[in-house]
Design brief:
Layout lengths: L1 H22 L2 E6 L9 H8 L2 H4 L2 E6 L7 H6 L5 E4 L1 H9 L4 E6 L6 E6 L14 E4 L3 H12 L9 E4 L5 H6 L5 E5 H11 L3 E5 L14 E5 H6 L1 H20 L1 H11 L5 H16 L10 H13 L23
Parallel strand pairs: 1-2, 1-3, 6-7, 6-8
Antiparallel strand pairs: 3-10, 4-10, 5-8, 5-9
Helix pairs in contact: 2-10, 2-11, 8-12, 10-11, 10-12, 11-12
């Protein structure tokens, strides 16, 4: 009788332990850079497929706010992970914000300067004497200056128009300005849908003037990484799985993203996803990999143009060690 009671007791202890292991999850906060879009698809795929849960993570996705940037929020450990961009990570680190990039969401820069095809602005030198609609950021001015002057144009003769919160493509189509910086996976696809024929000078085609850089990236803080290496590893495992699924299954991935963004235009999401999926990894050996040279060269470019006040140490700005493909 005692043996039976002992066996039953052991059985219940095992059950309780198993239930604890299944139910026990680490609460993790991820802050987006903008409204959910196809840059974020891998995250929502992993969430929908239960891959975060499988890794023992209960994920909370936070929308960006107006008071603090993603870099400041993550650097202050108010969020555990975030979506940022190489240029902002570089600037933040130079100014003492201890954030680290853990993965390149897209392997190469997919943005560029666009103009209506009818204006016949086929080369950045042709931008001389025309108007540019932007947000007045120092980096956009320096990029524009580099590709215009580097192609024999005159940056000083370009008129700047502040877009504010207006619809970029509508303003471009109605001649509010002649030129605009667009991200093709979103703005370029929308332009196609609206029947706008654009000439685009992609930055990747002018790397001798503006080095390639990662946009966007997934970040965390040095403190969180140091104190929670296991969580970071499990989080990145789920995220990597999500993006690898999106690479090979763009249609299904678009449907998943739409489940979480019912207010989005289904046609835009589906077309954007098909265009972007093959560009997540592109020519990298695995999704998310970052190269020292990309961080170093672009950091030097920013420093030389006064976009950062001190020289940039690239080696500590990124970390590939938590990417499954690196192991």
């Amino acid at each position: 009788m005692k043996n039976k009671l002992f066996i039953i007791l052991i059985f219940f202890i095992i059950l309780i332990n198993l239930n604890y292991q299944v139910d026990a999850q680490d609460n993790v906060r991820l802050m987006l850079d903008w409204v959910p879009n196809t840059n974020h698809t891998g995250i929502f795929v992993a969430l929908d497929k239960g891959w975060f849960e499988k890794e023992g993570i209960k994920l909370k996705i936070i929308q960006p706010g107006g008071n603090m940037s993603v870099e400041q929020v993550v650097g202050a450990n108010k969020a555990d992970f975030g979506i940022s961009f190489q240029e902002w990570v570089t600037n933040a680190r130079v100014n003492g914000v201890p954030i680290v990039s853990l993965a390149a969401v897209i392997q190469h820069n997919t943005s560029g300067i666009a103009a209506l095809a009818e204006k016949d602005l086929n080369n950045p030198r042709d931008y001389t004497g025309h108007s540019y609609g932007g947000w007045g950021l120092s980096i956009e001015k320096e990029i524009l200056k580099s590709i215009v002057n580097g192609n024999g144009g005159n940056y000083e003769e370009i008129k700047f128009v502040n877009i504010g919160k207006g619809d970029l493509l509508s303003m471009l189509a109605s001649d509010k300005f002649d030129l605009a910086w667009i991200f093709y996976a979103w703005d370029g696809i929308q332009a196609e849908m609206r029947g706008l024929d654009l000439n685009i000078s992609f930055f990747k085609d002018y790397q001798h003037l503006v080095p390639d850089y990662y946009t966007p990236v997934i970040i965390s803080s040095e403190k969180f990484i140091e104190n929670n290496t296991d969580i970071v590893s499990r989080f990145m495992k789920a995220v990597s799985r999500g993006y690898n699924f999106a690479i090979h299954n763009p249609e299904e991935s678009a449907e998943i993203l739409l489940k979480y963004t019912p207010e989005s235009d289904p046609e835009l999401i589906k077309k954007s996803q098909v265009w972007l999926s093959s560009r997540y990894q592109d020519d990298a050996p695995y999704w998310g990999r970052q190269e020292y040279e990309v961080w170093d060269v672009f950091g030097d470019w920013m420093y030389q143009r006064g976009l950062i006040n001190n020289e940039f140490e690239a080696s500590s700005a990124f970390n590939n060690n938590f990417l499954p493909g690196n192991n």
